[in-house]
Specification:
Blueprint (H helix, E strand, L loop, with lengths): L4 H63 L2 H33 L8 H24 L27 H9 L2 H17 L10 E2 L11 E3 L7 H14 L12 E5 L2 H11 L2 H8 L8 E6 L1 H13 L4 E2 L11 H9 L5 H26 L1
Antiparallel strand pairs: 1-5, 2-4, 3-4
Helix pairs in contact: 2-3, 2-10, 2-11, 3-4, 3-5, 3-10, 5-10
């Protein structure tokens, strides 16, 4: 092998490039380890900051909670209970009135939504009005407290009921519109349906018709279907009256009698032509959980094709909380003392009234 000077120079360059590559790799590894260490330190610092801020927030919350006394909680609870009670009472009262006077059910087209929406709006306005009235000092002209349950002229000074006067004086047109809008929005957000506040017509799916399962024609429900319908009954109640106890009836909707009538009508005239041309479609049925009482009423109503309304006054639904939500719109913490005084006064007056009635019957 012959030595040449340029060959040594090339080997020196190659060795130098390898050393530079090793040095660059070593510096890169050092920089990577430093960055990873810094990243870990940043994560630890962020975790420590989060833990410190969470601890401070918990300390502030516990301090606020320890400073809240029963005098602060009771007035708010009284206002919530009053607005909730009034909201439920108006909904159920309008349900009875619409069933007995207007004869409107949840199955009535269009009108059920209008009447149901008006009922929810009225209940919301009543809840807001009661809440505002509870925050007003019910005093007579001489500064004495007036009885809340007294009507007409009395020795306390005043003509009309002071609570009703407070409702009228604190409720404006703007309050009525806002209470109705907030109540309807909260009612819908909590899963309520406007027509579900009305009574049920046993010929059609009821106001509580939330759960159902497919039915195979007019045949009876299988053992599995009955067990599933029983679970629906215990959870949601009868789809007409809301009853959750007792045996379950697998209710065909639409009823078999109506389906048979529809099939007989489809064999005549235009219906027969549409059936042959496959334009009429197929009528499907579903099983709904039903109690025995509603089933007996349904048998008579379907046979006569007569309207038979059933109310659902029991049970609890989340959309009842729309009343307290309306109350929070105008609730003022500065009036807590007044709310507590009015609640205590009403409690005393109710107690005196009950004692007086007991003395009459004694």
């Amino acid at each position: 092998m012959v030595w040449t000077p340029w060959g040594r120079g090339e080997r020196d360059k190659e060795g130098s490039s390898r050393r530079k590559h090793r040095d660059n790799k070593r510096r890169g590894d050092e920089l990577k380890s430093v960055l990873e260490h810094d990243r870990v330190d940043d994560g630890k610092r962020a975790l420590e900051d989060w833990a410190r801020s969470s601890r401070e927030a918990l300390e502030r919350t516990s301090a606020v909670a320890s400073s809240v006394s029963s005098r602060d909680v009771v007035p708010l609870a009284v206002s919530c209970a009053a607005s909730l009670s009034v909201h439920c009472a108006v909904l159920k009262g309008c349900q009875v009135a619409s069933a007995s006077v207007l004869r409107v059910s949840c199955a009535t087209p269009v009108l059920s939504t209008l009447v149901g929406g008006a009922t929810v709006a009225l209940a919301s306005v009543a809840s807001g009005s009661i809440s505002r009235a509870l925050q007003q000092p019910l005093l007579a002209g001489d500064g004495r407290r007036r009885p809340l349950l007294t009507w007409g002229d009395d020795s306390s000074g005043g003509g009309n009921n002071p609570f009703w006067e407070a409702v009228r004086s604190t409720t404006t047109t703007k309050d009525v519109l806002l209470d109705a809008a907030v109540g309807l929005a909260c009612f819908a957000a909590l899963g309520g349906r406007a027509r579900s506040v009305l009574a049920s017509d046993v010929r059609y799916p009821g106001a509580n018709a939330r759960a159902s399962m497919p039915a195979v024609g007019a045949s009876y429900a299988t053992k599995f279907q009955r067990s599933e319908l029983l679970r629906m009954l215990r959870l949601h109640g009868c789809h007409h009256c809301g009853k959750r106890s007792g045996p379950v009836i697998a209710d065909h909707m639409p009823p078999n009698h109506f389906v048979e009538k529809a099939r007989q009508g489809s064999r005549k005239g235009l219906g027969w032509v549409l059936t042959k041309m496959r334009f009429s479609g197929r009528l499907s049925q579903r099983f709904y959980p039903q109690c025995r009482g509603c089933s007996q009423k349904q048998a008579v109503a379907v046979k006569k094709n007569a309207k038979s309304l059933v109310t659902h006054l029991g049970g609890w639904h989340p959309h009842y909380l729309a009343g307290p939500f309306v109350m929070f719109r105008t609730y003022d913490l500065a009036n807590q003392g007044t709310v507590l005084q009015n609640a205590q006064s009403a409690k005393e007056e109710v107690g005196k009234f009950l004692l007086a009635q007991a003395d009459k019957f004694a």
